[in-house]
Specification:
449 residues; alpha+beta; Immunoglobulin-like; 3 domains; five-stranded mixed β-sheet; globular; binds zinc ion
Length: 449
């Protein structure tokens, strides 16, 4: 029997600003590079079919808690950068562990500021060659096993600890009456003949948002209304290339939805949308996934753990892959862990990608936790309560451990210090590739447009 958890059992402490989850500020030439809290971000995205360009004008309102060089990230070089209306520049820098990001090139005072800039989007955008029927396809694909593969590939954005409302205003220039399908996990409205507005939920982070636009009808869509165990009705959308079976994706999504809701509680997002692609794994977003049929269940689980309860840093990303992988292998319960030590969650506080040994080592760790928790309903009972208490919030490994100990009344210091925050043992040096998250080339990502 499953034990029901009173929510009060969980250690509370949600903070909107999430400053406490930011990596430490660090010294640079001339002062400190400082992490900020982005409040809102508006992105005006313009596709010019004649010029074949995709450009973004961004306006970000952020709060700085101390003076310094504000940190953000954007891979393309921005132009027309302004802070509170005054022009300045950005610098690409390295964090103390050697990973790249950007800061402004001026020390900015404590308080609320408006940051503006422009940049071109070149990744995963494709213009047709047709002179008479020009068109564009664009997607903000993300990946979490490689560094700098979140929204910073396309638009200025923050690290994963930050949650903010993002708004896209999309314009298509160069066609009289552009006709497009937008597949998004935000609320969309058409604002004129060639402009659309998408508002994404305020709990989203830099790895939550889903955005894919294609000429109308170029992909096939199927929809169903799903009745949640909460009584709420929401939409499940599957879309695929015409040669794939859209209805199979839709039917399987409904089946998995029923399983996940039964195990972990009501779906935590407004809807679910999935882009069904060829075998080769997928990527999860909040209430959305780009995925092969075989990885659909894995990616949907991530709408609970990864994009429902969300990791604050790359070093916390092992948790959700461990849970998903534990489910993939049939929720094993094992009295021993298969390895004797690892640094899965102990790389760099600035790290944004996840250690790819997290599947194999992580599911072994979860199977062991399930064994240890068997007298209190098992690990699933804990996870169900953890999701109910912390969906739409950003968590850390320490937070996961604290709550696990509180729930079970047991101490896991030794296990975490050795197996997650320790050093790598020989038996922890497993190959990291997981069939659900296979590495993809730039060409493969572009071909999915
Ligand atoms: Zn995964």
């Amino acid at each position: 029997m499953k034990k029901l958890l009173p929510l009060a059992l969980f250690i509370s402490g949600t903070a909107l600003a999430n400053f406490h989850l930011a990596p430490p500020d660090f010294e640079v030439n001339g002062g400190m590079a400082v992490f900020v809290d982005m409040k809102t971000a508006e992105y005006k995205i313009t596709y010019d079919l004649t010029e074949k360009t995709a450009t973004v004008k961004s306006k970000i309102v952020f709060e700085s808690r101390t003076e310094g060089f504000p940190i953000f990230d954007l891979i393309p070089n921005p132009t027309n950068v302004k802070i509170d209306g005054a022009p300045l520049k950005t610098v690409q820098r390295k964090d103390p562990f050697g990973s790249k990001m950007r800061t402004l090139n001026m020390v900015i005072g404590k308080g609320t500021h408006v940051l503006e800039m422009e940049n071109e989007i070149s990744r995963n955008v494709s213009f047709s060659d047709s002179e008479s029927f020009p068109s564009v396809r664009s997607a903000f694909w993300i990946r979490d096993l490689k560094d700098r593969m979140f929204l910073e590939q396309y638009i200025p954005s923050n690290y994963e600890y930050d949650q903010l409302q993002m708004t896209f205003n999309v314009e298509i220039k160069g066609a009289k009456k552009p006709s497009y399908d937008f597949f998004v996990n935000g609320e969309i409205s058409q604002t004129s003949v060639n402009t659309w507005k998408i508002v994404y939920p305020a709990y989203f982070t830099v790895s939550s948002l889903y955005y894919h636009m294609t000429p109308k009808g170029s992909l096939r869509k199927a929809e169903a209304t799903y009745k949640s165990i909460s009584g709420r009705e929401f939409k499940i959308t599957a879309y695929t290339d015409w040669y794939l079976k859209t209805s199979k994706f839709l039917a399987y999504a409904q089946e998995v939805m029923a399983e996940l809701e039964a195990d972990y509680g009501p779906w935590g997002h407004p809807n679910f949308i999935t882009y069904g692609t060829l075998p080769g794994g997928g990527m999860e977003h909040s209430g959305a996934a780009q995925t092969s049929l075989g990885a659909l269940d894995h990616e949907m689980l991530h709408s609970y753990f990864a994009k429902g309860v969300m990791p604050g840093r790359g070093d916390d990303g092992w948790i959700d892959e461990a849970i998903a992988s534990w489910r993939d292998y049939g929720y094993l319960r094992l009295p021993d862990v298969s390895f004797t030590g690892s640094d899965l969650g102990n790389h760099s506080p600035y790290k944004r990608n996840t250690d790819d040994r997290c599947y194999e080592l992580g599911r072994s760790f979860m199977a062991y936790l399930d064994y240890r928790l068997q007298n209190v309903g098992g690990l699933k009972a804990f996870l169900r309560g953890y999701f109910a208490a912390y969906k739409h919030t950003v968590i850390t490994t320490q937070h996961f451990k604290n709550n696990l100990e509180f729930f079970s009344g047991q101490n896991f210091d030794h296990e975490f210090e050795t197996l997650i925050w320790g050093t790598n043992s020989k038996d922890a040096m497993v190959s990291g590739h997981n069939p659900n998250h296979l590495p993809m080339t730039d060409k493969q990502l572009k071909d999915m447009l």
